[in-house]
Every structure is written in C-alpha cells, then in structure tokens.
Amino acid sequence: MAKNKVALVQGNAVVGQSGGPTAVINQSLVGVVQGLVGNREIPKILGCRHGVKGIVEEKYVELNTIASDQLERIAQTPSSALGSSRDKPDAAYCGRIFDSFKKQNVRYFFYIGGNDSSDTCRIVNELAKSSNYELRCFHVPKTIDNDLMENDHTPGFASAAKFVAQAFMGDDLDNRSLPGVKINIIMGRHAGFLTAASMLGRRSETDGPHLIYVPEVSFDVDKFLTDVDATYKKLGRCVIAVSEGIHDDQKKPIAAKLAEMSGKQVERDSHGNVQLSGSGVLGDFLGDLIKSKLGIKRVRSDTFGYLQRSFVGCTSLVDAKEARMAGKKAAQLALTGNIDGSVAIQRVSDEPYRVAFKRVELSDVAGKTRVLDPSFIVNNNNISENFRTYLAPLVGKLPVVETL
Amino acid sequence: MAKNKVALVQGNAVVGQSGGPTAVINQSLVGVVQGLVGNREIPKILGCRHGVKGIVEEKYVELNTIASDQLERIAQTPSSALGSSRDKPDAAYCGRIFDSFKKQNVRYFFYIGGNDSSDTCRIVNELAKSSNYELRCFHVPKTIDNDLMENDHTPGFASAAKFVAQAFMGDDLDNRSLPGVKINIIMGRHAGFLTAASMLGRRSETDGPHLIYVPEVSFDVDKFLTDVDATYKKLGRCVIAVSEGIHDDQKKPIAAKLAEMSGKQVERDSHGNVQLSGSGVLGDFLGDLIKSKLGIKRVRSDTFGYLQRSFVGCTSLVDAKEARMAGKKAAQLALTGNIDGSVAIQRVSDEPYRVAFKRVELSDVAGKTRVLDPSFIVNNNNISENFRTYLAPLVGKLPVVETL
C-alpha cells in the first residue's frame, strides 16, 4: 500500500437513486460503480431497487459484475435504472436502513438524489457514528430543479434545460406561424431555473418567450393579464413560460388553489408537497382567463410534464460528463478515509467553462433550497440576458434556426 | 430550346404554406424554390405570408433572391417560415386568390399543406381553366397526421413520430422508476398514425405503452377501465397512449363532450372542427377516472401538444430529405406542361427502403382522409408489431436505452 493511503475498511457498497429521475442520473450511478470497482476491500457493489425502499426490503442487484459495454448503455439511458422512491425516511426508517446495512456488512453508501436524499445520508451517517460503525455516506447531487445549495448547478438540470430551450424555440416558431397566445407550464416547485431556461433560444427582441413567471416572484393574476395584453397589442402574439410552482403572496401554489376550487382532492407526497405535475389544470386555467378577460381568440396551453426530465435523445453532453464525474468523485472521496459528505459542482470560470468537484458537508445541502438570484429576474415577468452566460455552457450548442 | 421540351408560360410563381406547421415544411418550401430558380420564364418566386391570406392581402416576399446558405438554414428550421393560415377558402375566396394571381401575372402556384390545401389548389385551378388563364397548380403534401390519400406517408409525419417515440421511450423508463399509471395524449383527429408511433421504442413485452387508443376505434370508458386495471394488476404499472381524437360510438369526440360537461365554450376552427389541442382536459379527465374508479394512487397525465410538430432538434433525416424532394418534384412537374396535381409519396420497397414521388389528381387527395389500416390495430387497444415495419424506415435509428 502506498504511503499516505488510508486503510480501507472491508465491506460492501450500496448505491441508490432517489426522487424524480433525470436524463443523466444513470451517469452518476455508473460513475460510482467505476470509481469503486476493482477494490479488493469492497467485494460487492450493490444497487438498491427503488431507493431506500430497496434497502429495507433487501432488494439488491449486484453491479460490479456488469460488463462495461452494458454499463455504458445504462449510463446513456435516461431515468433511474435502479428505480426510484419518494419515501422520506424518518429516524425510525433510517434505523431500518442502518440495520440492513449491518446485516449486509455495508461500509460504503452512495445516494444519488436531491436535498431530501442528502438528509437521508446525513441521518444514516449519524446513526452509524453513534454506534461506532464505520460507514462512509456520500450524497451525489441530482435534480432538474437545480436547487441544491453549495452547487453552481446540479446534474440533470442542463439536459432538462436543453429540452425546455429547444421546445420553446420550436414553439415560438409555431406561434409566429399561427399567431395567438401560447402558455407553457414548466416543472419547478420553489426554484425557477428550469423555467428561466426557456429564454436560452431567444435570438432577437421579438423572439419568445415574451413573458416568464418563476416561483421566486409572487404571482398576481391582474398583473399577468396586463402583461399579456401589452405584449399581444405590441407583437400580435405572446409566448409565455410559467413555472408550475407559481404561488400567491400567501405562498399558496396557484395550481393547488385551482384544484381546490374545482372540488378536486389535492394530492400530497410523503414530503407534504402538493402534487403539481401530471395535470394540465394550471395552463388551462390561465388560458381560459386570457380568453375571457382579454377577448383573445387563439389561446393555447401546453404542460411540458414528465418529458422534461426523461425524453431520450436530448441530453446535454456537459451534463452527462459532469454527472459521471460527480459519481466518480463520491467514490474517490469515500476511499480516502472515514468521511462523509455531498459532492458539489462549483464553477471555476465562465470562459473557458471550468468546474471543480468538491466535498461539502451533508448538513450544508440537506433539506435546503437554492433559488434564482434576484439579478436574473427582470420586471417580475422576465429573465435577464445575463442568465444566458450562466446557462449556455451547461447546455451546449442549440440547433440553428432561421426566419424569413 | 431542346426538343420535346414544352414551352414555359412566362409568369411568376407563388408558394404558400398552410395548416399546422411541421418540422420539415420548410424543406418543401426550399425544394419548390430550388426546383424553379434560374428559369428565365419565371422572373419572380413569391412566398405568400400566412397562406391564402397573404395572397388576397398581397403580402408577398421574394424568395429567388435569398442566398443559398440562408435557404438551407430555413429548410432546417421547423414551423412554416412564411407563416400559416387556418382559412378555408370558399369559391368566392378562391375568386379573390385568382384575381390576385392575375394582377401579379402568377402562372405557377404551389401550396404546401394537408387535404384542405389540396382542395384550395383544386378550386383555384378550375377557376383558371374556366377563364382560359394558364395556371399550373400543385399541392405539396404535409401533415403530421399522415392522413392523405394516395400517399404511403406524408412529410412531417416521421419527425413527429420520432418525437412521440422518443418521448414514450423516456416516459416508460420514468414510469418503471416511479411506477403508476401514466396517460399521454397525442395529436390526431381522425387518424391514429401518430398515436400508433408511440410503440416504436418498445423493445420487450413489458415495455410501454401497454395500451394504445386510436380514433379508428370507438372509445368505451368501461372497456378502458377494464384494460387499465388488467395491465396494472399484471405489471404494477401502466403507460397509455391516447389520441386526442378518440370519440364515442356516435362519433362525438370525448374531449368535446368533456369540455361541454364542464360548461366550457367549445372552440371550432373555420373547418367546423372542434379544437382538441392546447388543453389538458382529456388527459386530466381520464386520470381522475382511473383514480376514482380503480383506486390507483399514482396517476399522471401529459398532453404532448404542440411540441410534437415543432420541437427543434428531433427531425427525421428521411423526412427532411423527402419533404425537400416533394417540393422539388412539384416544381419539376409544373415545368413540364400545363398540368396540375398533387405530389404523392409511394413506397416501392420496405427493404431496402425506397419510395417514388408521383403526380396524382388533386381530386384524389382533396378533402379526403386516410386512416390506419385495421390490420395495424390489435384488440381495439393496441398496435401490432408489423406497424414497426411500416414506420421504422421513416423515423430512422432511435437512441439506445438499457435497463437493469
């Protein structure tokens, strides 16, 4: 063994995936596997099926025996290959996770997910510490919402942003062709990063989206109608990006208010969040409002829905590469000593675009939410051009379009 | 002038685009321009803005002066570069078109669109004939619905089919990851070709979509619930493709029934068709039904909407090439004599994939609708594997995905 190298604790590794899938979450999975494979001290690298659920139910799949070409194909496949889970483990649940780990002699745990997943890592890690059981817990970031603290951006975001940008480029051309008002609803509960990405394909002042509403700003229906009316009068058309997470000044989501108004049972997940995606109600409501209040005839709405996070064939190459690196980095860190943490992507420079992968404390990421910097928001209804400087290197080249 | 060559009538050409845009309708536009440019007898190639509307309002743009690199960029851009129109000209409107043509000395008219556009060509052409005014009218096919008679398939369909197939591949992986029922609503009023394309990415018996509902079959709500229940019990999940055009056994669209039930004003276009796209109501209704009647908790619906026809970066190469060829063929035909017609794509062989571009009579295409062959429909709720033989060469290679 080389000097300065810490002795590895002998035991198995578990890697899991949690929360909403992304186009590159399997890159991180493969990164973890590649970072660990070949270590004599780690006989098995186990994937847990459907996140923490697979741990407590002992549903594991061996990952170190998979051929490298199959691993590469898995890496390139969107959505969580191991399956995902929306379970939010409390202390008792984490205890069961820990029991399962002891039984399987698991000494390395990697959880790929958002801020809730980092919290799971944190609690399991503390249980291990208080029991003097050596367990190296690492959180690998992933979320299309791009809302993790300590990170410049998160794996999964750029590919979803690319989808949103390309969708808006096409939709704006469609709207030029058959003018009217077009509303597109985009994922994002608290953070407007993905909705803001709708601006990336704009090339001129008349290109849409002409209005962008993010959850960082309280949504005012009257102001919205005034905005739409002004744009429509000026351009004869109006393309609008709306985050599914828009809420009133009491922080109540507009989508939840609408669902309640229509007498629907409001669905909540295990984190207490009202279900926003998987329904067209918000777009339909805003469209009907414009028709009835502004008297505009051709008003359409689309809700991008789950396509944003899982569409095959629209992955950002930078995103794919960084997601792989984040997984590998977590594995490397776990092999350096009895430490824990979350891997964070931090930007070193814009031009040339360079990032660094760093270990940060689990508690600095767990359960916290990062939102759009106010400097990116213009007039409460648009996104500034300097957001492009931030986003463009992550997404890469967009298709070239030309108008007559 | 070479022997056997028909003398060209001296005059200008007009080319227009009509109906819903596609990803390759500009390829056909550029094909027409390239097919005509350089003919001394045709001093001007004019594009009419927003279809027939641009003709009667004399809003023309000169296309023969555009540099070839810009033309290529336009060809690669989705949506109608000239703008489109939903106007359905009656005899009086066609009279005004003809008047505008005479004023501009237009002797060549190309209209890129669906079956309504071919009908416009037909009427204008008859007016010219009865006035002894030499006018060569050609219809160039386009529609994502793939519902034109005399055609094996139509330009625009394959790119939309590619989008639908890739969306379902990703969405099925997403549904594997977080199991439940997922409904996706796809464009198509009378023909189920685009909805059927949802099957193209299936690789195994457990891959979704597990159920496919096309407008060729009357939709029965009870049968639908039975189908979903059976699939969900078998697989623990269910991915469903539903055409927006599904209707009851009285031919009334389900979407229109739902809109009326909810007290909404039903919107109709100038062709008398009820507006189906641009709303999530159908998916939401079917989802609520499954929740309440089958007691399944995780039920989501997405309506693919306008993304299907205009998304940038998901064009089929075969589609792009054929759309260009269809435009060129129309130009070539118009230069061969005082004839009219519609260009049709007919398949010569499946393997190797080969097609021929032929002139057919306008009246054989005008106002008619082609639907899915019954042999493609299985058990009234699915699409047969032999539809793949038909569709695969049009779409080209799909991204490779892999599961664990």
Structure at a glance:
Chain A is α/β, with parallel strands linked by helices and 404 residues long. Helices cover 38% and strands 17% of the residues of chain A.
Oligomer: homodimer
Could you name the ranges of chain A where pLDDT drops below 50 across 5 or more consecutive residues?
none
- N-to-C series of helices and strands of chain A: EHEHEHHEHEHEHEHEHHEHHEEHEEH
What is the radius of gyration of chain A computed over CA atoms, rounded to a whole number of angstroms? 22 Å
Number of helices of chain A: 14
Number of strands of chain A: 13
Q: What profile does the largest beta sheet of chain A have?
A: 7 strands, mixed
Please report the first level of CATH classification, the CATH class of the largest domain in chain A: Alpha Beta
Shape category of chain A: elongated
> What would you say the CATH architecture of the largest domain in chain A is?
3-Layer(aba) Sandwich
Largest inter-chain contact set:
A-B, 64 and 64 residues
Characterize the structure shown.
Two copies of one chain form a homodimer. Chain A has 404 residues and is of the alpha/beta class. Chain A folds into two domains: 12-155 and 315-365, Rossmann fold, CATH 3.40.50; 158-312 and 373-395, Phosphofructokinase domain (Rossmann fold), CATH 3.40.50. Chain A contains 14 helices and 13 strands. The first copy, chain A, has helices at residues 25-36, 52-56, 68-75, 91-103, 115-130, 157-177, 193-196, 221-235, 254-261, 281-294, 307-310, 317-334, 362-365, 386-395; strands spanning 12-17, 45-48, 60-62, 106-113, 136-141, 181-186, 211-213, 238-243, 299-303, 341-349, 354-360, 377-378, 382-383. In chain A, helix 1 packs antiparallel against helix 3 (68-75). The longest helix of chain A has 21 residues, at 157-177.
